[in-house]
Design goal:
Number of helices: 4
Number of domains: 5
Number of strands: 37
Helix content: 10-25%
Radius of gyration: 51 Å
Mean pLDDT: 92
Largest sheet: 7 strands, antiparallel
Strand content: over 45%
CATH architecture of the largest domain: 2-Layer Sandwich
Oligomer: single chain
Length: about 425
């Protein structure tokens, strides 16, 4: 009987110990608050930094440790035979928590690339970890924020509002290697993101050698049209940088002198442009540049070297070319006609037409071929008056600008203000001998 009593007493005492167990909770950081979760899920403040709880037999107790800027920690304690409870439990909050709010309200928050469902998100940063947050909205420049939870780095904030202010547009160019230059600074080629800071305007140039530069302005100012979300730029107009030798040769486009030595020739899409480079004493150069589908595109640049015109060195500039000269003679008509015929035949082998009765003479063309030019020359004589006897004499001098031009190709020849050395004295001879 005595032994039975002792056994019952032992069981009673040990049961009392299990029925009322005390536990001290210590938190780090020490500013953390410890809450006991009641049956109605209501949290009751039981201490800051540390707290003691009593755990009844088979009645679990749940506590939550909270501190702004940290992820809450929750733990449940149970007093039972299968669980050994310590006298003291140390709880360390080491996962940082940042509440991020994005503006505008419909901007999207991305945490490590994963989109969140609302404009407010909780960002967890584990110990010794780094987390990157992005806030995006079409038409705005994306903002990035990186939070670190490691010693020696800036402590993440408790709350952060990330506001998108600068505008953004994505540019796609054709050709794909067009340079995108913003306010004089290149930011890339082809596909590029262009940022327009809030309350400013920027100038963007789309540049590629051999093409006419496209320049546009975009603004992110109140009251002005917003930049597009995307901008497709197609460079179509071609540009040929023409350089000449000699350096002072004139460059003509559509008959108009545009420059000397150097000029950038603009060729609109779907058109052709004729460029003529010329200088006295040199053979003119003609180039046709076309900017059309299915046609070889024009070069980016071209150096046009003018050849020395041998016709120039074999001639003299004269105010007697292609001009009607009237010569009055006191000689009888028969004698005058004979002198006219003699002089003409001295210079020209073939007379195309001669009529003494009307006093008309026209020679055939004398042709002189050069490496880069063709010169044709003839004499036309007309009787201008009888009393006193007068004749008009015209020395016709024309050039084609090309070698071996047929004398019959009238459309290829134009008047020349020079006379071949062979004929430089012919007018003077007419004047002196008919006196």
């Amino acid at each position: 009987m005595k032994h039975l009593y002792l056994i019952l007493l032992f069981l009673f005492l040990t049961g009392q110990v299990r029925a009322d167990k005390s536990l001290t909770i210590i938190c780090s950081p020490s500013e953390a608050t410890i809450y006991k979760v009641g049956p109605d899920k209501k949290e009751i403040n039981i201490g800051t930094g540390s707290a003691m709880i009593k755990i009844d037999k088979d009645e679990p107790i749940t506590i939550v440790v909270r501190l702004d800027g940290y992820k809450p920690f929750s733990k449940t304690y149970v007093n039972s035979k299968s669980v050994t409870l310590p006298k003291e439990d140390r709880i360390v909050l080491d996962t940082r928590l940042v509440r991020v709010n994005a503006q505008p309200y419909d901007a999207k928050i991305y945490i490590e690339g994963a989109v969140q469902s609302a404009s407010t998100a909780w960002v967890e940063v584990r110990k010794d970890a780094t987390v990157t947050v992005e806030v995006k909205k079409p038409g705005f420049f994306t903002k990035h924020k990186t939070y670190h939870n490691r010693q020696g780095m800036d402590v993440p904030p408790i709350d952060e509002v990330i506001v998108l202010t600068d505008r953004s547009m994505f540019v796609k160019t054709v050709p794909s290697d067009v340079k995108v230059i913003v306010n004089g600074k290149s930011i890339g080629e082809g596909n590029a993101e262009v940022v327009i800071p809030v309350q400013t305007c920027i100038t963007v140039q789309y540049v590629k050698e051999g093409f006419v530069t496209v320049e546009k302005q975009y603004c992110a100012k109140d009251g002005q049209p917003l930049p597009p979300l995307t901008e497709n730029i197609i460079l179509k107009e071609r540009l040929v940088a023409v350089r000449t030798t000699p350096e002072d040769a004139s460059i003509k486009i559509d008959g108009r002198v545009m420059g000397n030595g150097e000029y950038k020739v603009r060729i609109p899409f779907g058109q052709c442009v004729e460029v003529i480079v010329e200088k006295a004493g040199f053979v003119a150069s003609k180039k046709n540049y076309c900017n059309e589908d299915g046609v070889q595109p024009p070069p980016v640049s071209e150096h046009l070297i003018l050849a020395v015109d041998e016709a120039f060195t074999s001639s003299v500039q004269s105010d007697q070319a292609n001009i009607n000269f009237t010569i009055e003679t006191g000689r009888p008509e028969e004698e005058a006609w004979k002198i006219l015929s003699q002089i003409t035949m001295n210079y020209f082998d073939n007379i195309e037409l001669a009529d003494r009765e009307t006093g008309y003479v026209r020679t055939s063309w004398n042709v002189k071929n050069f490496q880069n030019n063709t010169i044709r020359t003839r004499i036309i004589v007309k009787q201008a008056d009888i009393l006193p006897l007068k004749y008009t004499i015209k020395l016709v001098s024309e050039y084609s600008g090309e070698a071996k031009t047929s004398v019959k190709q009238d459309e290829s020849f134009v008047p020349w203000d020079r006379i071949l050395n062979t004929y430089k004295d012919v007018i003077s001879e007419y004047q002196s001998r008919l006196k």
